[in-house]
Amino acid sequence: MPLGIVVGGFFGDEGKGKIAAYLALKDKPAAAVRCGAVNAGHTVVYNGRVWKLRVVPSFFVNPSTRLMVAPGALVRLDVLFREVEETGVRGRFLVDANTGVIEDRHVEEERRSAHLSGRIGSTLQGVGAAMADRVLRKLKLARDYPELRGMLGDVALEVNEALDRGELVYIEGTQGTFLSLYHGTYPYVTSRDTTASAFASEVGVGPRRVDEVIVVFKSYVTRVGGGPLPGEIPPKEAERRGWLERASVTGRLRRAAPFNFDLARRAVMLNSASQAAVTKLDILFPEARGVREWERLPREARAWVEEVESQLGIPVTLIGTGEGAFDVVDRRRDLGLEW
């Protein structure tokens, strides 16, 4: 069975949590690993409840999936313990011993920075300060905290052994390609690389082990904080179109723009993406809301998806048509791409 990576194609907020939850329920992976840090919130809507997750993988909705946090990730202990209790995953949740831990002093340091809070528009969650400490080799790791002792393990070993046994594993990336420290709109970026290659490295798997990279796009583009956003429309126009959103971590209004084919093509290139997922198709085409079969989508919606495929050169295999985890058109079987 393969290893798949879920990665964001724009500036975050693409709906990776929804896609990950659907894959958990549909594909029933043996294990799932979350990367990144607490400045990224993944929203899952399932069984009438909404979760906004910053540590626990969105794959938690499948009760048989082993859940892990990558050694290259950063966690805050209060967020970690709260989410573990809220999701009820204790006993199948593993934190790598080398995962970094954000302390209160990191948050305070960022909040004192006029550069981060003003020009950059950082989420001010302490992530950049903690990453700087990690580079300077003075950040405390999960293994330094007794309260985590019962959750610690070797995630790289667990994942590679699962793959050796032929089990299905997913890696859940965070944020979006163009927030990458190296490939994004620097300096308006996050403090790490946010491409598929980096997420594989964060977990501890080599590139030859990766079988599929699913790049997630929203049917329009949103961005939180400073930095360029080609085609940006005014907030009133975004509200009229139904594109006005708030960030799941900070609550700030997201800036909005139409779907950007140039950015999407570059995201496919940077991630070596083999498949695309598109979320919120129902916002562009309200008649698509709740539809779960390709043939039942409005003709205009299907034509738009086919144009995305033509422009990007990869198949659009998963299409989000609503908030719920199961509100997805899954074309993988028809396209011969089902696991």
Task: Give the helix/strand layout.
Layout: E1 3-8, H1 16-27, E2 31-34, E3 42-46, E4 49-53, E5 66-69, E6 74-75, H2 77-87, E7 93-96, E8 100-101, H3 104-111, H4 114-120, H5 127-135, E9 152-153, H6 155-164, E10 169-172, H7 196-203, E11 212-218, E12 220-223, H8 235-241, E13 255-258, H9 261-271, E14 275-279, H10 281-284, H11 299-312, E15 316-320, E16 328-330
Helix pairs in contact: 3-5
Write structural notes for this entry.
The chain has a single domain, classed as Adenylosuccinate Synthetase, Chain A, domain 1. It has helices spanning 16-27, 77-87, 104-111, 114-120, 127-135, 155-164, 196-203, 235-241, 261-271, 281-284, 299-312, and strands at residues 3-8, 31-34, 42-46, 49-53, 66-69, 74-75, 93-96, 100-101, 152-153, 169-172, 212-218, 220-223, 255-258, 275-279, 316-320, 328-330. Helix content is 30%, strand content 19%. Strand 15 (316-320) and strand 16 (328-330) form a beta hairpin. It starts with a strand and ends in a 9-residue tail after the last strand. Helix 3 packs across helix 5 (127-135). With 339 residues, the protein is of the alpha/beta class. It contains 11 helices and 16 strands. The strands form 4 sheets. The chain has a 10-stranded mixed sheet, sandwiched between helices. It has a two-stranded antiparallel ribbon with strand order 3-4. It has a two-stranded parallel sheet with strand order 6-8.
Low-confidence segments: none
Note the total helix count.
Answer: 11
Biggest β-sheet: strands ordered side by side in the sheet:
9-7-5-2-10-1-11-14-15-16
CATH topology: Adenylosuccinate Synthetase, Chain A, domain 1
- Could you tell me the radius of gyration in angstroms? 19 Å
CATH architecture: 3-Layer(aba) Sandwich
Question: In one word, what is the shape?
Answer: globular
What class would the helix/strand composition place it in? alpha/beta
Number of domains: 1
Query: How does the major sheet shape up?
Result: 10 strands, mixed
CATH class: Alpha Beta
Roughly what percent helix?
25-40%
Q: If you average the pLDDT, what whole number results?
A: 95
Task: Spell out the CATH superfamily.
Answer: Adenylosuccinate Synthetase, subunit A, domain 1
Distance between the ends? 7 Å
Portion in beta strands = 15-25%
User: N-to-C SSE series?
Assistant: EHEEEEEHEEHHHEHEHEEHEHEHHEE
Number of strands: 16
